[in-house]
Amino acid sequence: MVNRLAQSQSLYLRKHSENPIDWWPWCDEALETALRENKPIFLSIGYSSCHWCTVMEGEAFSDSAIAQYMNSHFIPIKVDREERPDIDSIYMQTLQMMTGQGGWPLNVFLTPDERIPFYGGTYFPVEPRYGRPGFLEVLQAIRRFYDTDKRKLQAFKAEILDNLQQSAVLTAATAELNREVFQKGLELNTGIIAGSNPGPSFPMMPYAELALRGTRFNFDAKYDSKQVCTQRGLDLALGGIYDHVAGGFHRYTVDATWTVPHFEKMLYDNGQIVEYLANLWSAGIQEPAFESAIARTVEWLKREMIAPTGYFYAAQDADSFNTSEEVEPEEGAFYVWTYAELEQLLTAEELAEIQAQFTVTRSGNFEGKNVLQRYQPGKLSATVETALAKLFAVRYGGNPDTVKTFPPARNNQEAKNDSWPGRIPAVTDTKMIAAWNSLMISGLARAAAVFGNLEYLELAVNAANFILDNQWTDGRFQRLNYDGQSAVAAQSEDYALFVKALLDLHQGSLTLGNGDEAKQLPNSQFWLDKAVQVQDEFDEFLWSVELGGYYNAAKDVSGDLLVRERSYIDNATPAANGIAIASLVRLALLAPNLEYLDRAEQGLQAFSSIIRDSPQACPSLLSALDWYQHSTLIRTSPDQISGLISQYFPTAVCQIEADLPEGIVGLVCECLTCKEPAKSQERLLAEIQQSQTRG
């Protein structure tokens, strides 16, 4: 017997389709039913590759007694946060207000009339354990409170709603965003990357990207930003968070030593990390492990994460099956190695080399098995590369040279029932998410420019063209695509990150536009024109005329939300408003149109109190402020472009100037003012560097 979720396009929702709980998707009918029957809403939010979401699905949500009580006393609604980040953002914020922490699965109880949360938590076990009550006990207590303590419930609702509304509006006071504000924010955010803690280790790419910007200044800073950023690159490229056998980065490590990952691979992490490692290289930190990690991650993309139509899949699960007879998948099974396996697969010399270069022991570092983590940077030896190729063959059933594509397992049934040549792979969520694809497009475009790699650019172009050709319905941008069908109105992060991706393609196309193969690709002006078109739609439907900045969702598709938020806090992905404001500055330089610059200034003022008072919450807004304070346009000849774009000038854009006066190699403009034309490459570089660090 299946429930309503069986017909959902979302893999996460379909995973709950055989639960005895009578789940609803988030829809008007479900909300109206709760109101008519006066039943509290149990809202459960998660995503397909979330480990504890999977655990709760197999435990509490599969329990018949819990389901019977839930179905009688609540309206249970399931939401995929990757489909509706606007809903997730609101209720995650309320959970943090109520408990001081958050995470997924996100489970909150809402009033049926105004959908205001009055209790919440993350993972609830079936029976009391881990210091948490059993879920049935929680349900009974919540329903008893709802029925008997109306006065307290009303007071709690009023407090939550007031806090949400204040958070959405922010303070009316604006702050001066001067050089000192930027410098303070830069130092605080660099400290977050530099600091060590005993808990899990996350990539935190928006913070690392801002810290890298600090390497060009001679501030009297507390931290050596170049050392901090290099170390973050080494943690990523050498750590267990990186799949040394087959490429791609896992979500995070569960320890402070970057050793044992939580094994899911998310597209959004990989796109940001590729861009960051490419930027490290362009900044002169040319560690071979960075170039190798980018190359192998692109190989992973090509092999496992690209749809036939060119877009990138969303994610791969952490869990997989060891055998088709298993009932439940096991975390990390696809990725880890027993010592006995290594002894059997490798020669004595190969095993000795692997042990010398990686964290490999008889006892292992993860439940008796080994996660590979490198000890030292540098280029791997031929012996180690041969050994890694043998491990690859065990996983995929062939060596890296022959296994160019590896079909996804779209659900647990496919994973268990299909005949795989190697290990049973983790499930891949094959939906297209515009924002996440945009992050990977940006990463590939930057890596293409830095390394002069046309293949990287072609992959980015194919994904961007898919979005341009398929993601507009009735003239409006759509966030998702399921097997060729677009769905769900685009949100601010989709618009902001896609505009950035188009501008990154504009820059990347300038560097690789001369060869015969490159001439088959759209030229740079095509990408700039598309960026302007998408930005116009973004401004029309999501810009807040009253407050400044961009709402998470358009007014005509946000009637089911408690409040209309404007995202400015960075998480695993950069906040939409930080990215959007930076792109406005870039458009003002390239279009050129000073209305973009006016809007960027309004956006920064809208969030100025946050930038000044809580800079550690908003590194992307500080990056946008960097663009505003140090924006630079470089106009130069085609033969100069590649050498300039491949360098690290984080607040500069390039433009080809075909008709420069004789003897002039380039012009540097600082937003509204141009410098004296440069007559030598040395002079041009000096002017660029001065512009990038001006007071």
Estimate the strand proportion.
5-15%
CA-based gyration radius: 26 Å
List the total number of helices: 26
Q: What is the β-strand count?
A: 20
- Which structural class do you get from the secondary structure elements? alpha+beta
Question: Globular, elongated, flat, extended or rod-shaped: what is the shape?
Answer: globular
| Biggest sheet features | 5 strands, mixed
Helix content, binned percent: 40-55%
Global mean pLDDT:
94
N/C terminus separation: 67 Å
SSE arrangement:
Layout lengths: L10 H4 L9 E2 L2 H10 L3 E6 L4 H8 L5 H10 L1 E6 L4 H15 L6 E5 L6 E5 L13 H14 L1 H20 L9 H16 L10 H9 L11 H14 L13 E2 L7 E2 L2 E2 H16 L5 H18 L9 E2 L2 E2 L9 E2 L7 H7 L2 H10 L24 H15 L15 H6 L10 E2 L2 E2 H18 L2 H17 L1 E2 L2 E7 L2 E5 L2 H20 L12 H19 L33 H15 L3 H13 L1 H6 L5 H12 L1 E5 L1 H8 L6 E5 L9 E5 L2 E2 L6 H12 L3
Parallel strand pairs: 1-3, 2-3, 17-18
Antiparallel strand pairs: 2-4, 4-5, 6-7, 8-9, 9-12, 10-11, 13-15, 14-15, 15-16, 17-19, 19-20
Helix pairs in contact: 4-6, 8-9, 8-24, 9-10, 9-11, 9-24, 10-11, 10-12, 11-12, 11-17, 14-15, 17-18, 17-19, 18-19, 19-20, 19-21, 19-25, 21-22, 21-24, 22-24
